[in-house]
Amino acid sequence: MVNTNLDYKSYPANENNYSVGRAGKKIEKVTIHHMAGVLTAKQCGSIFQDENRKASSNYGIGKNGEIGLYVDEANTSYADANLESNRTSVTIECSNNETGGDWKVSDKVLNKLIELIIDIFKRYGITKAI
Fold first, then answer.
1. pLDDT digits (tens, 9 = 90+) for 6-53
2. How many CA atoms are closer than 13 Å to the CA of 90, on its beta-carbon side?
């Protein structure tokens, strides 16, 4: 497994916040979350660097459309509150452009998310998005 070929910066999550490997599972899907805040990729990454957080994501897309890598795709992030889902998905956190309300995401973030999903789908042979 390799990480995206798109331009990104690495902000590694604390080792307490993910598992090494994927327990023999293959990546079959992408799980998308919103950050519940207007954050840069670096700011989101700093949250996952807290050893007591017990949460992480493989990637994040910050408010300016920048991609952050927090957990290598070869490893299991703790994003879905479901170990099996975590082991079989690449997880992506997206910055909002407002707090509360409908928790909207900007077009810049959405467009970068689409680019990243296409990259992941191509590399893992995923053909269906739900």
1. 999 999 999 999 999 999 999 999 999 999 999 999 999 999 999 999
2. 25
Say how many C-beta atoms besides its own lie within 10 A of residue 66's C-beta.
18
Residues across the chain: 130
User: Is 0.90 topped by the overall pTM?
Assistant: yes
SS (HEC) of 34-97: ECCCCCCHHHHHHHHCCCCCCCCCCEEECCCCCEEECCCCCCEECCCCCHHHHHHEEEEEECCC
- 3-state SS class at 109: helix
Chain centre distance of CA 105: 15
Tell me the pairing of strands 89-94 and 18-19: unpaired
Measured between its terminal Cα atoms, the distance across the chain in Å is 23
